[in-house]
Every structure is written in structure tokens, then in C-alpha cells.
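#lab-general

N.A. 3:47 PM
ok so I finally got the sequence cleaned up, no stray characters, all 262 residues accounted for. can someone with queue access submit it? mine expired

B.Y. 3:52 PM
send it over

N.A. 3:53 PM
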Amino acid sequence: MPHTTTPDGVGIAYQVRGEGAPLVLLAGQSNNHHWWDGVRDDFHGDRSTITFDYRGTGQSDKPDTLYSTELFALDVISVLDDLGVDRADVYGTSMGGRVAQQLAARHPDRVRALVLGCTSPGGPHAVERTNEVRRSLVRTRPDAARQALLELMYTPAWLAENPGPYRTLGDPGMPAHARRRHLAASNQHDAWQLLPGIGAPTLVVHGSDDLLNPATNSPLLADRIPGARLRMITGARHAYFEEYRAVASPLVLDFLTTVRQR
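B.Y. 4:20 PM
back already:
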């Protein structure tokens, strides 16, 4: 698996699939590139996909140092530089959407088009999950907490028909310190002041029934980013991109194709 080394000396593993215009796919908090396994092939008609393992996950180094969404965005730049990619489309979901905001705002010359899925601006302007949801995720019994997370990610009907394995529940190989660092990075994200400066054409996508990252965050992002489009997927929860892939993947591809043809 190819690796690159960041300016601060951290080894980052990355993966490239397909051929054509590059699309960077950014996973959720405490997840590695396998987050995208269920839908990655949807994008390979005329483009390549680039993923990477966040520091702290997968085959990347796992230093016990401060992590942030801004730092994760710099790690993306290191990967693009290693590949010789000047500009790419970027699709980030959940915490990956927060990283994508940092990338598009701070490195506008590297982002051609932007898709923000099931994410939020962070900080005091964001709509946080309820205390009931928070409590469900910190139950003392690991199996109960896992089931609560599954039900926040997917609808009961989908879970009944898809017994797993599930790729979106976190990297099981992460050390505890890396999980804490990822949680802090996501919680401390606040891009509110940066969002009006995003110049890339932007699509905001969210499941209407998402309680893990409340769906009311999506219009906040769309209103804050100049010219952004908003699409809600009715009935979808947090992992809309997987359960509702028949809707979500064509939606994203149509948007990216339209941008390319301008």
C-alpha cells in the first residue's frame, strides 16, 4: 500500500482505484478508507477515487499528538502532492465533511468541486445531537452501544436485510488514544467563519432522518457557502450514502459531471 510522509513526519497510507478525473473520498470519524467500500465502485465509470487512512487509523501512523480537521486537510494535501494531483473533486461525509470544509476553504486551488455529506459547520452555530443520542452511544455494554450506533446509521428495514459486516462503525484496530484524538478533532471543528470563503461549486447532501449529525445542519451549510446546492434524501439516516446509494451516488455524480462541463 502506498504511503506518503507529512511535513510533521507522519506516515499516511493511501489508496487509488480506477482511472480518470480524481475524486477524493473522505471518511467519518475514527474510520479508515474501508468506510467507502460499499459504494466506491459507483464512482469509477470515468474517474479515479483517492482515499487515505487518517492518522490514527488503518495503515497510517498513530501518534499520540493533537489532531484537528485542519491537520487532516493538510494530510490530504500531502497525499495529493505525492500523487502529483493539482486539483481534485472532494466528497466528504460526517467528519470527512468537516475535513473537506477545511480543505476547500484553506486550499481553494486544490478543490475543483465539493460535496459535503451528513456533516455540519461545527462550533456554536452547529445543531448538536440530543443528550438522548449521546447517552445511547456511551452505554456500559459495548453491544448495546454498537446497536445504538447501527440504528443511527441505518434504518431497521435495511439492517434486517443487511446483516453485515458493517464498514462505518469505526476502525477496530485504532488504539484508544487515537479514538480520543479523533473525537477531539471533530468536536473542536468550527468552520463558520471560513465557509463564506469557499469558492468551489458545492453540493450539500443529508439524510432527512439523521439524528447522529442532525439534518438541520445541512441548510446552515448551504446558506453559508456561496451558491451551494442542498439535497435532502427522504427517510435516510447518517449512512445515507450506503443505504440509499441508488439515489445518493447518481446525485453526486450528476453534480460533479455538471461542474466539469461548465
